[in-house]
Amino acid sequence: MKSEKYPEQSSHQARVDVARTREKSGAEDNFCARPLFHQAAQAIQSPVGTLDPQHFTSHNSKKQEGSVDAMRTRLGRLIFLQFAALFCLPGVAAEVHVESPVPTAESIIAHMMQARSDNRARLRPYSVTRDYQLFGKETQKARSEVVARVTFDPPGIKQFVIQQASGMGLGERIVRQMLEHETEIGRNYLSTDLAPTNYDFRYLREEELSGRRCYVLEIIPRRKDKNLLRGQIWLDSTTYLLRRTEGEPARSPSWWLKDTRVALIYGDVGGMWLQTSSESSADVRFLGRHTMLSHDVDYTLSTLAASVKGEPPSGR
């Protein structure tokens, strides 16, 4: 005796027939739709689709309902996976980050040299009041404080006057030596310039400094010179101007000093890119570790140069 088919079976079979018809006719001809119909048809063609009324009991009814729920869950998962593939998994794709290529050290240095050349063309006479503080082991209180007025006349002439000095005399002596050294370098800046004639450069990394993205390069002196530094420089990745220089002299500047470290900070002053502060530390024989901090307090630009630029003389 043939068993009768319940309406639910007919409904399921109809959906299977529609899926097969569409597959054969190519009505849904794309890379995501075809697998979806295949898997949907397989999910619907489960053993639950045909029931024998002679063996249908309450127990079988509950089992059927559980199987239908499982089938629906499986079908839902399959549909989700297919739609995820259809839209190329945007949630995963969003995590893929394509970084811009890092320029070579040679390219960075070429841009730096051009930026420094442009900056030299903008230099004009100025004077600056600079404050120096000398610290010993006690970093909370300065052992000496010196205020100097430094005058700069491009391309490299510097003059200075000590305006005020307090505390131990060592501080004033060190400041005088530093300013005399700057004046000497200013007369022949090409011998100490941050250029391939004096340094080799090696790209290290990119990092943020004071809110600006920078290229960090290692600087390697081409000769042992007390006026050259071995260390690192931070170049603005947009302007290619120096933001920080840090290192140690290629040769010790004095028998009295050991483990000397220097850090120089740069900034904009009336359209000119200048060194605005510094930190130097060293072990002084018989006296221990000392640190000299300097920062520019006030600038006065040349009246003639300022009038050419259409700007009044201004301080900082």
Question: How would you describe what is shown here?
Answer:
The structure is a single chain. The protein is α+β, with helices and mostly antiparallel strands and 316 residues long. It has 2 domains: 87 residues, no CATH class; 205 residues, outer membrane lipoprotein receptor (LolB), chain A (Clam). The chain is 34% helix and 34% strand. It is built from 7 helices and 10 strands. The chain has a 10-stranded antiparallel β-sheet. Strand 2 and strand 3 form a beta hairpin. The N and C termini lie far apart (105 Å). The N terminus and C terminus are likely disordered.
How do the helices and strands line up, and which of them pair or pack?
Layout: H1 7-25, H2 33-44, H3 58-86, H4 90-93, H5 105-122, E1 126-135, E2 144-153, E3 157-167, H6 169-187, E4 199-209, E5 212-221, E6 229-236, E7 242-249, E8 257-269, E9 272-284, E10 288-301, H7 303-309
Antiparallel strand pairs: 1-2, 1-10, 2-3, 4-5, 5-6, 6-7, 7-8, 8-9, 9-10
Helix pairs in contact: 1-2, 2-3
